[in-house]
Amino acid sequence: xxxxxxxxxxxxxxxxxxxxxxxxxxxxxxxxxxxxxxxxxxxxxxxxxxxxxxxxxxxxxxxxxxxxxxxxxxxxxxxxxxxxxxxxxxxxxxxxxxxxxxxxxxxxxxxxxxxxxxxxxxxxxxxxxxxxxxxxxxxxxxxxxxxxxxxxxxxxxxxxxxxxxxxxxxxxxxxxxxxxxxxxx
Length: 185
Fold this sequence. Notes:
Number of strands: 5
CATH architecture of the largest domain: 3-Layer(aba) Sandwich
Radius of gyration: 27 Å
Number of helices: 8
CATH topology of the largest domain: Rossmann fold
CATH superfamily of the largest domain: Resolvase, N-terminal catalytic domain
Strand content: 5-15%
CATH class of the largest domain: Alpha Beta
Number of domains: 2
Structural class: alpha/beta
Shape: elongated
């Protein structure tokens, strides 16, 4: 069974061209999202289309960007379909996972997306290292300031309990103890 999916982002666009192409491609059913962004992969029409697909079926779209904007999200979606033994066909780009050439093209796209994620990760790590070398603090701010820790030490000497101090500073007892031991003299 061929299941078609069509989407337009704004109210002033029409689904007619996509629906016509999906019918011409032999889709048995067509699901739509009208006025819905392709940024999110959780869309009512898409969800219904995915639920209706069974083993041996094919999801058909007019163009790849009608399914989604993010290449990694698209690849994940098509890989999930493949695990369910469901094929994918994009009419405009002529990507058809029922053919060996279509599968190859999609695997190449997947490799490019993975390469892009690796580059982003490398740039992020390099940026963090550069910031660290400049003395910038990365991550969350400490739960307690050095002044808080000094005050906590004084209060402990005066007989207050760790539990009472943790409640006073709005942290857990474990966080208080960790800060006290990290700055032990």
